[in-house]
Specification:
The chain has 238 residues and is of the alpha/beta class. It has a single domain, classed as 3-Layer(aba) Sandwich (Rossmann fold). Helices cover 43% and strands 14% of the residues. It has a seven-stranded parallel sheet with strand order 3-2-1-4-5-6-7, sandwiched between helices. Strand 4, helix 4 and strand 5 form a beta-alpha-beta unit. Helix 1 packs across helix 8, helix 3 runs parallel beside helix 4 and helix 4 packs parallel to helix 6. GO terms for molecular function: 3-oxoacyl-[acyl-carrier-protein] reductase (NADPH) activity.
Amino acid sequence: MHIVTGGGTGIGRAIALALHARGEQVLAIGRRRAPLDDLAAASGGGIAVLSCDHSAPADVRKLVEAVDGPVTGLVHCAGGNPAIGRPDPTSLDEEKALLDETIAGNLTSAALTVTALRPLMPTGASIVLYGSIAAEHGVGYYGPAKAAVASYAVGLAAALGPQDIRVNCISPGYIADTEFFGPGLDADRAEQLRRQTAIGRNGTPDDAVALTLFLLSPESRHLTGQNLHLNGGAFTTR
């Protein structure tokens, strides 16, 4: 079984559909029921769906109960930037609430999900966590939260390596045709982001699908503990 969190929309949805098209058993998870129902319908009922808040231990326990069979692949796309579209905090209490929500939705959700599902993962399984280019640019609390996810992947890879379970992180730049920015990204900003890439185009969910499927496959069997930047050259490392 492959589990895809954040599976109702955007990158997660595209990954779930691609895995299903390959004949894999897929459980897609998200917080909102309507997008999950749409996904199930789009797959002809072939993709199982479950509503879950990955930062809530009780919900994650229900997830484990819903799993049927060993988990050979886990893709954690759940997360986001709750500051988008909201007014800036005006008090310490509001500031802390935003910080807590951002950490919970990104790092806590990844840690609880992996911890809960780890006993169900056999030798040779693969975990793919999703970070962000924001970790390199220091975007509010979202950037540090995603930097923590990438760091978590490194430590997790070392811990699970002896069981031949691989862990990698994908950190995308701007991916078009997703709900990440909601109504907050206009055409001018999308064009600005396009110009920041080396190849002159913004990413698409299909770009993320291709890399994710590779990391889940045996072809990447010697690749673990890495943070792979998927951004068309908008941010580069060496």
